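User: Please fill in residues for this 229-position structure.
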């Protein structure tokens, strides 16, 4: 079997799934804000080391905006609309760390390595295959949306009017999304997906990047929770 290694400091998908679960714990059990900062910096560092420099910078800049938002006490006298907006940003901050970890998982993992990881975890095919299809579906969907926008731009079509936007973008996307789902289903059947025999040509393994990534995040979450108390 071939070994999954892309020459970057890239943990395998099993470790990434575990980190997403660890950071999901912080949604209901928040950690100290400074430990949040350190977690975001660690996640952004892994983005940077895997060639996603723009995403690394966006992560830090966006979290800076969320970090310096006024507290609930300070927004008491704000207009109701502004209050609702800031409240939504508070909710976004709650989910931001697991969201970033999930984004790292999606952007740095291919479908083959994800399926191999799920096999290692003894996840049944009825669960692993839909997950793999989701990972394959959304990049295709995003590419088609970009193509529609480029086609509109070439034809000089403006989308400032929301009704026109629905007509020119959403309707074609609905049709295309159905076609993409059909294409993926046919490709899966062509590759004998119904055959229960496992046909994996990718092998995942634990390396130094996995240990550093998982242990660092775990220490930050535990330390941040204890420090907050």
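Assistant: Residues filled in for all 229 positions:
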């Amino acid at each position: 079997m071939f070994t999954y290694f892309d020459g970057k400091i890239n943990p395998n998908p099993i470790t990434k799934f575990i980190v997403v679960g660890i950071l999901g714990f912080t949604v209901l059990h928040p950690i100290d804000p400074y430990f949040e900062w350190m977690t975001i910096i660690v996640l952004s560092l892994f983005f940077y080391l895997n060639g996603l420099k723009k995403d690394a910078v966006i992560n830090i800049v966006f979290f800076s905006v969320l970090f310096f938002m006024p507290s609930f006490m300070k927004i008491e006298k704000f207009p109701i609309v502004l209050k609702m907006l800031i409240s939504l940003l508070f909710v976004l901050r709650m989910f931001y760390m697991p969201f970033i970890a999930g984004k790292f998982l999606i952007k740095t993992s291919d479908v083959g390595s994800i399926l191999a990881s799920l096999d290692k975890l003894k996840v049944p095919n009825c669960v692993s295959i839909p997950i793999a299809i989701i990972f394959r579906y959304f990049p295709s969907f995003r590419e088609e949306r970009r193509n529609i926008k480029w086609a509109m731009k070439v034809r000089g079509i403006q989308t400032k009017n929301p009704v026109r936007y629905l007509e020119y973008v959403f309707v074609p996307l609905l049709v295309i999304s159905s076609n993409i789902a059909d294409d993926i289903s046919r490709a899966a059947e062509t590759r004998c997906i119904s055959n229960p025999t496992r046909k994996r040509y990718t092998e995942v393994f634990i390396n130094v990047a996995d240990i550093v990534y998982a242990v660092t995040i775990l220490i930050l979450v535990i330390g941040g929770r204890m420090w907050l108390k």
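For context: The chain has two domains: 2-111+205-228, 124-200.
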